[in-house]
Amino acid sequence: MKLGHLQRALRYEGGLSRRLFLSYAASLSSLPLLSRSASAAEPHEFDSDPFTCGVASGDPDHQSVVLWTRLAPKPLEPGGGMPNAPVAVDWEIAEDSSFKKVVQSGRINATPELGHSVHLEPRGLKADHWYSYRFMSGGATSPTGRTRTLPSPQSNPGKLRFAVTSCQNFEQGLFTAYRQMAVDSPDLVFHLGDYIYEYSGQNGRVRKHHGPEIETLDQYRSRYAQYRGDKDLQNMHAACPWFVTWDDHEFDNNCANDISEQRHVKPAEFLMRRANAYQAYYEMMPLRTSSLPTGPHMSLYRRGRFGRLAEFFVLDTRQYRTDQPNGDRKSPLNAAALDPRNTLLGLEQRKWLFDSLSSSSGTWNILAQQVMMALADRARPDSPAIYSMDQWPGYAHERQLLLKHLQGRRISNPVVLTGDIHSSWANELRVDDFKPEQDVVATEFVASSLASGGNGTSSTKGLDEYLARNPCTRFFNRERGYIICDVTPKTCTADYRVIDDVLKPGGKTTSRARFTVEAGTPKIHPA
Ligand code: FE
Ligand code: CA
Fold first, then answer.
1. How many domains does the chain have?
2. Residues 288 and 366 occupy one common structural domain
3. The 160-165 sheet, strands edge to edge
């Protein structure tokens, strides 16, 4: 537990009640995971399938990958329909999908403290290799998942294909696009946040959230279970490993560190809710033990390496940020937005990122993160320029530090992946995006929402004027979809896939646009 944070919360409070303090302190130590490695649990008989949330894998390196499942025969109920006791789960990882060539297997306890989730980290696997895995418990067998390790750090892979997705509001759209993503057969998926939305169920939408706005641990758990019950999402998790990171809605809209968008919510109460949100996120995602939360703190920023072809930097721009200037609203780039005390990354993550980039040996350096980095003017025609203060423009000083670091240290081919904004963009990033005469330093590919916002529009009305005002932006589109990126030592190509309908089953996915960046010259070209 980080005392500094607690003291800061207390200072904010001015006079926190002793009862609130005690319950806060209790929430910080609410993770006694230890029954996990205790003696073998009793077998459990299930009346119905316990694998309602499917399987998943994630955070691969060259010799291991996280394998995940959760036991929840009644996924929307508190406790998931499980006894308040550890339950044994058997697992296997094999060379083949019929499990004739099992390479490792074992038994682990799924514990009530972690919502009967299972996170395994089998080690000693072959580099650059595909595997099948599955789980068994009480006579039930999970779906089979496919996963892979990454190439060894010193190898020189010729190609990598990954998908970029974000923003999947269950009520606003079906997840049909994940079917095409599975057909696209990526090596891995980056999910950039808004995996769930915290809002209460609304009538008249394509589907309905279970229950009220989520605040308790059980409510966050059942929200994830509802989303993960979607077969298209579930099948995509079973198809390849994912690198996930959160944005705001995994916790609360436009949250910044311990500050709620609802100004009356006290930081200590907000941190208790955050502890629930973070714990449920850890439980439901294929994350390593190094991400296990402590109360309202969870270490999510991390690094991955695909041989010498690419390094990945998965960022967390929510947990450590200072409050948005001008109260989250769009605003000119005034003194508040340019204040050097503002930070999106927090000083520790910023130092880690800068040091990691400096030591990278990847041909491509991929920043998987949440909010748009381009200084894109979002005003209506003929209005003075305004920018989103919830995104990098609200933290323009730190944005400039990062772009200067990329330029000054000659970081090899930086590519920024972005979600959050529910539209597709391809941007050329400069230290100062208002000066098109400056050299382009990095490329930003922004994936649209997978489902949030319902059907977008393919109308191009007003786009020319918009692009003329924003010389950094080479492409902008308001349909739903995701990106497939193909990376080779020479090129990085982004294919913007869009889906024609998320409100009815059977939506068709097509390629709307393709852009290529050549290694050594970060300018964006149509492919
Ligand atoms: Fe979103
Ligand atoms: Ca968001």
1. 2
2. yes
3. 117-120, 66-70, 55-58, 242-244, 188-191, 160-165, 480-487, 491-499, 509-518, 521-526
Residues 6+ away with beta carbon under 8 Å from 426: 443, 444, 445, 446, 473, 474, 475, 494, 496, 513, 515, 524
* CA dihedral sign, ordered 484, 288, 297, 36: positive
Query: Cα of 243 to ligand 1 centre, how many Å?
Result: 18
Tens of pLDDT, residue by residue over 414-442, are 999 999 999 999 999 999 988 889 999 99
* CA 254 / ligand 2 centre spacing (Å): 7
Measured in Å, residue 254 CA sits from the centre of ligand 1 at 10
User: 516 by DSSP, 3-state: which?
Assistant: strand
Domain extent, residue 15, equals: 3-125
The secondary structure of 69-129, three-state, reads EECCCCCCCHHHHCCCCCEEEEEEEECCCCCCCEEEEEEEEECHHHCCEEEECCCCCCCCC
Q: Is residue 219 part of a domain?
A: yes
* Helix/strand/coil percent split, the chain, to 5: 25, 25, 50
Ion ligand 1: residues, Cβ under 5 Å: 167, 194, 452
Query: Which numbered ligand comes closest to the C-alpha of 173?
Result: 1
Q: What is the pLDDT of residues 163-184, one digit of tens each?
A: 999 999 999 999 999 999 999 9
Nearest ligand, CA of residue 453?
A: 1
For residue 453, report the distance from its CA to the centre of ligand 1, in Å: 8
Residue 34, number of CB atoms within 10 A of its CB: 10
In this structure, which ligand is nearest to the CA of 195?
1
The pTM of this model reads 0.93
Same domain, yes or no: 16 and 108: yes
Give the Å distance between the CA of 12 and the centre of ligand 2: 26
**pLDDT band at residue 226 under the 50/70/90 scheme:** very high
Residue whose structure tokens are 């068994």: 136
Q: Residue 420 C-alpha to ligand 2 middle, in angstroms?
A: 4
CB atoms within 10 A of CB 526: 10
Residue 131 in any domain: the answer is no
pLDDT above 60: residue 346: yes
Q: What spacing in Å lies between the alpha carbon of 137 and ligand 2's midpoint?
A: 37
CATH (domain of 326): 3.60.21.70
Domain boundary among 89, 110, 125: 125
The bound ligand whose nearest atom lies closest to the alpha carbon of 388 is: 2
Cα distance between residue 397 and residue 340, in whole Å: 5
Half-sphere exposure of residue 511: CA atoms within 13 angstroms, side-chain side = 11
Residues 332 and 368 in one domain: yes
Residue 287, pLDDT score? 98
Domain end point (choices 70, 90, 125):
125
pLDDT range class, residue 334, cuts 50, 70, 90: confident
